[in-house]
Amino acid sequence: MSTQVYLAQARASLNSQDCMALYDKWAATYNDEVGDDAQDYVAPVLVAQVALKSSNNPARSVILDAGCGTGLVGQALATSGVKAIDGLDLSNPMLTVARKTGAYRDLAQADLTRRIEKADNTYDIVTCVGTFTAGHVGPDPALRELVRVTKRNGIVIATILEEIWVSGGFKSEVEKLKRENLVTVVSDELIDYVKGHGDKAVLVVLEKVDRAWTT
Length: 215
Fold this sequence. Notes:
Strand content: 25-35%
Strand order of the largest sheet: 3-2-1-4-5-7-6
């Protein structure tokens, strides 16, 4: 099955089980296919670069890679000296590939449409790349959950496919979190996503407000 067919099917998924089944099948060839010149999936490296710049000491940062897939973000972070990276993903075969990279401290299966089984204020930085796209994970409760597990004054960095930024409710959810004084919006800029397809994504950087967090 071609990458374009996989992508189309992934973005047409109707529920998390359909999405997981697709990525289970795709896991073995995913990295080779999305990384070739025809696809040029640049978002993982761009997000890793933002994460590194947001930390005064990346080597000592504790990072959660939510929706880590095969570990593209984790690898980019680890090669720059980050040592404590945890990963979550819905697909166990994807996690198997991520585990082989050696980039992660811990990996676990998780459905990001539900509460994350992590304590409040755990991570310095949370990244989420390729998860907020059509047919995948919606903004609520996922964005709020990413903020919850981030330390006060910590950073959440996420990509949201351009075509669902407004229509999918992501822009309004970010604005809601800001109104509730849970985050400040550091930036929300349009970036290349899957460059070979011409796909764009909104790269959102949120800083968790230094206040008591109640769940």
